[in-house]
Amino acid sequence: MMRTRIAVKSLLNRRVTVLLTMLSLTIGIVLVLGINHLRTQVKESFNNTLAGTDLIVGARGGSLNLLLYSVFHMGSSAHSIRWQTYEELAKHSQVKWLVPLAMGDSHRGHRVVATTPDFFVHYAYGQKQALQFSQGKAFAGKYDVVIGAAVARKLRYQLGDKIVLAHGIAEVSLAKHDDSPFVVAGILAPTGTPVDKSLYISLAGMAAIHEDWQSGVRIPSAKKVAQADHDHEHKHNHHQKNKQDHDHKDEHEHEHEHKHGDDHVHDHDHAQSLSAILVGLQQRSATFTVQRQVNQYTAEPLQAILPGLALAELWQLVGSAEAAFNIIAWLVVIAGLLGMTTSLLAGLSQREREFAILRSLGAGPWYLFLLIMLEVLIICGSAIVFAIALLVLLLWMLQPWLLSEWGIQLTFSFISVQQIYYLLAILIAGILLSLLPALNASRRGLHDGLSVKY
Amino acid sequence: MNNYAISLQSLRYGWSNAGKVLLNIDSLNIAAGEKVFLFGPSGSGKSTLLNLLAGTITPQQGHVNLLGTALNDLSYRQRDAFRAQHLGIIFQQFNLIPYLNVIDNLRLRVEFLPRKQQQFAYAQIPQLLTRLGLAEAQQQAYRLSVGQQQRVALARALLGAPDIVIADEPTSALDADLREEFMTLLFELLGEKTTLIFVSHDHQLRNRFDRAINIKDFHDATAVIGVEQP
Q1: Which stretches of chain B sit within 8 Å of chain A by CB?
Q2: Complex ipTM > 0.95
Q3: What is the per-residue pLDDT across A86-101, written as a single tens digit (0 to 9) for each?
């Protein structure tokens, strides 16, 4: 008891050095715990982004690229898929449902995805949880828009608000579709996935706002020219495998594909030209068969990817960066521990008097050894407590931002079994390093006796 | 077996195991309750003799017997325990742990006492504080004056009623008045049976003691460790 009292008071007596030592250790521990927590959570949220979709079909290219733009809404497709392909795929006997996705527009930095109301039925995340509306419902009219939870919160949108979409996906877009404002028809409940940060409109809506656009530029009188130049390929009814009636068949009557000569150069092939198709199969066992068939499709170059595999592949890519972060965090911890050892060693000379007094009272070398050990435990233990408190504070402060900017939902429960092992490792490393000053102190106790060199 | 508090026989001590001898004591016996004044020039081995008595160092040759116990035969751990139980030590100055208050500095001594002595020692604390006029029990040690610090050191050395008190120039940092006050308190509080080894350069104090020992008497320039004297 008295030894603890001495240790605490001695540390308080050297509070500036001790606090700086604790601070450097705390930073290291926050980094180790934080990075590990972030990694676990990001991986979880990553793997939870898409569930229930068996295949993602897109134009041939990198599978990672397809995954990134179709699911994470990052980057863009270099090529697009023709509407005919979507129709062909819908006829496949193994296909249970399919959801077309067309991208290219944005709203204040958030991606706008044109799709069918089926998206809200079939898109699932986490443990196959379906999307839910916190307010309103799926788009019904041409100029209806459904917004993600983060969009609603960040931009403070409510049902009935009118918003203008911008052409292109840049954060600041100069070209706006201000001639055709959209009305917020529904707000989705938070999912912790990129869905939260996106806006959803109907394919008809996207086609409508691009009526006067060509090659990414607005040409006011282009409608007629466009009609003369473009192929009016599709007069289709809504091609849903499950034959759902979406009350807007007529909207598709006017949809048309912009078939430009440089079709492959830009990514703004709206209307029925699609960026990707999410596919659900009748039987999961057919996945590879359908994938092969899609990959061998002759009408246009296509590829189908398995979301799970692509996610794992993407995580491997991210994983190497995560390992680098981890190494840096551990190096900071080691630097902190070495700093602690150095300051303890340097302090021993100044504490010769203290040790001589303790020796005169009957303290043995072992007592001095344990005293130093106790001080190390107090320093490391306090640093761990500070680190946990700091991490909780950081999580509390950063959570809204991470959710709105990155769609990452971080939980507060960051103390996992692995994290406890990490903390134990730090504690053991601290104890091992402190053997040096502790042994030094006990050796001094033995040799110097009661005499003190001034 | 004698009833000497301290008995040194054929003792030789040097800083290395083969070399010049610093202390060469054929025989030194100090009776229980004897108050001894030890003097000698700086570097003559006074502190070494105190360390030998405290058991923090052991001689290369000869025997150190305290209260009938041969310190040479004890392990360092046993010597530490023996020191805690039987010896009270006062240094020249800086006797106290500066960041602890007066009470904690006193309790520190009790911490190392054997269990059976602890209760008695704890009961002594308030009495000693009153007797020494130390009202500042909660005061941090570094805030005390030198005189106050030496009085606390005296109180601490006397806690648990040690058999032998070793004082290494405890008055050298004090002015004449404080020195007088300290010496009066020391002799008042020391029991008749308590042996005192008091190191000092101040020969004015010499008359208060039963015996004076000049450390130079224990020097023998010809003696070498490892070689028996004729």
Answers
A1: 47, 50-51, 54, 56-57, 76-77, 80-81, 83-85, 89, 91, 94-100, 104, 107-109, 111-113, 156, 168
A2: no
A3: 988 999 999 999 999 9
Asked if A6's CB is within 8 angstroms of B97's CB, the reply is yes
Q: Which residue has the tokens 């809506």?
A: A205
- Beta bridge partner(s), residue A274: A81
Residue of B nearest to A360 (CA): B89
B185 and B154 in contact (C-beta within 8 Å)? Answer: yes
A12 at B interface, C-beta within 8 A: yes
Q: Report if pTM > 0.80.
A: no
Q: Report residue A138 as tokens.
A: 């799926």
What does A247-290 look like in DSSP terms, one character per residue?
S-GGGGGG------TTTTT-S---TT-BSEEEEEES-GGGHHHH
Q: What residue type is B34 in one-letter code?
A: E
Q: What is the DSSP letter of A402?
A: I
Distance CA A275, CA A357 (A): 80
Q: Both tokens of residue A226?
A: 């466009």
Length of chain A: 454
Rounded to 10 degrees, what is the CA torsion of A175, A178, A181, A184? 50
Burial B158-176 (b: 16+ CB within 10 A, else e): bbbebbbbbbbbbbebbee
Residue appearing with tokens 């709105």: A404
Q: Which residues contact A305 (CB under 8 A, 6 or more apart)?
A: A55, A56, A58, A63, A66, A67, A291
